[in-house]
């Protein structure tokens, strides 16, 4: 009876445990499989001064290319002044289109005439010295040719003599020491001949070099002007002419204005601006993305912005030749990028 009671209690506890498992198991499954919420991560902020959004002009070509926003304007007119006082001999005319290096004005005075005379004298002395050096070299060539002819005759005779000595040496009619002496004598004469021929070539080369130098000096002498020369600092258009031919002007007197056609001023803020100095850049007009101009950027002034990250630069851009006439109306906001490179 006791064993039967124990068995009945054991079976009852097993049934009770099974019922409890069936009742509470759905709740546990639901708590484990509840959905996980999803949320978008905040986007990183862009670096200042670098345009990376699709609304920027020309940004569809390469979305990873670094770009900078800036303001561009025509450089102010050059005012050309007289380096010294004197009489105005020649002047360019208002409206003349000129290229860099073209003479825009000439001024005559006693100082310029004296300087020209001194330059001419110095060049004449250099030409005279070069002529003398050529004459000496020609005399040396005459002497060397005479020596070379004599050496050639001597070498030929010694070659015949050495051939006889070589035959006697093979026949044991001449000792080794005497044969070696004959050979050394012939070799020494040949080396002497080669040395003289090398010296002769150098003399001819020296004369050719001196003649070229004389041509350069004569060309420089022709370019000496009795007047002070004022040249165009860049391509441009002559604006207001402030002097007259025949007028006597003082030092630093204003002669004329020149509006540059291929130089623009550029103001930039952003990062890594020093990396643009001396580089080829592309300027895209902000309000007209189809207008693009290329050139070399040269930074004139640079500083770090106070109290914030970033840099500031004032620069000049020397635009490439063959682009549109920029003598008027070229100003406004631009997008700047490195030409021919996607990244800095």
Description:
- This protein is α+β, with helices and mostly antiparallel strands and 344 residues long.
- 41% of the residues lie in helices and 25% in strands.
- Helix 2 (110-170) runs antiparallel to helix 3 (176-223).
- Mean pLDDT is 78; it is low at 25-60.
Topology readout:
Elements: H1 2-32, E1 68-74, E2 78-81, E3 86-91, E4 97-98, E5 103-108, H2 110-170, H3 176-223, E6 228-231, E7 236-241, E8 248-249, E9 254-260, E10 263-270, E11 280-285, E12 292-304, E13 311-319, E14 332-338
Antiparallel strand pairs: 1-10, 1-14, 2-9, 3-5, 3-8, 4-7, 5-6, 7-9, 10-13, 11-12, 11-14, 12-13
**Strand element count:** 14
Mean pLDDT reading: 78
Helical residues, percent: 40-55%
Shape: flat
Give a short summary of the structure.
The chain has helices spanning 2-32, 110-170, 176-223, and strands at 68-74, 78-81, 86-91, 97-98, 103-108, 228-231, 236-241, 248-249, 254-260, 263-270, 280-285, 292-304, 311-319, 332-338.
Question: Could you list some keywords that capture this structure?
Answer:
flat; 344 residues; four-stranded antiparallel sheet; six-stranded antiparallel barrel; alpha+beta; 41% helix; 14 strands
């Amino acid at each position: 009876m006791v064993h039967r009671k124990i068995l009945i209690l054991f079976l009852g506890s097993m049934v009770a445990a099974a019922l409890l498992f069936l009742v509470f198991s759905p709740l546990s499954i639901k708590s484990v499989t509840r959905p996980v919420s999803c949320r978008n991560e905040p986007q990183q902020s862009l670096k200042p001064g670098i345009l990376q959004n699709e609304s920027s002009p020309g940004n569809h070509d390469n979305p990873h290319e670094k770009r900078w926003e800036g303001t561009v304007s025509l450089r102010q007119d050059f005012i050309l002044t007289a380096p010294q006082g004197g009489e105005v001999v020649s002047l360019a005319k208002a409206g003349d289109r000129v290229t860099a290096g073209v003479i825009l004005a000439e001024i005559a005075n006693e100082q310029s005439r004296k300087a020209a005379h001194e330059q001419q004298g110095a060049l004449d002395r250099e030409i005279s010295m070069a002529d003398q050096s050529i004459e000496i070299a020609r005399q040396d060539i005459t002497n060397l040719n005479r020596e070379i002819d004599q050496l050639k005759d001597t070498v030929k005779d010694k070659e015949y003599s050495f051939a006889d000595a070589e035959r006697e040496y093979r026949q044991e009619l001449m000792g080794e020491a005497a044969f070696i002496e004959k050979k050394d004598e012939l070799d020494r004469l040949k080396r002497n001949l080669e040395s003289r021929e090398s010296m002769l070539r150098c003399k001819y080369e020296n004369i050719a070099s001196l003649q070229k130098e004389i041509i350069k000096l004569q060309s420089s002498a022709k370019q000496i002007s009795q007047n002070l020369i004022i040249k165009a600092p860049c391509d441009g258009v002559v604006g207001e002419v402030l002097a007259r031919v025949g007028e006597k002007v003082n030092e630093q007197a204003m002669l004329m204005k020149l509006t540059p056609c291929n130089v623009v001023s550029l103001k930039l803020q952003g990062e890594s601006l020093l990396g643009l100095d001396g580089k080829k850049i592309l300027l895209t007009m902000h309000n007209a993305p189809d207008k693009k101009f290329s050139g070399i950027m040269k930074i004139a002034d640079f500083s770090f912005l106070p109290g914030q990250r970033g840099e500031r630069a004032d620069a000049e851009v020397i635009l490439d030749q063959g682009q549109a006439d920029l003598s008027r109306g070229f100003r406004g906001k631009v997008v700047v990028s490195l030409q021919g490179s996607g990244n800095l």
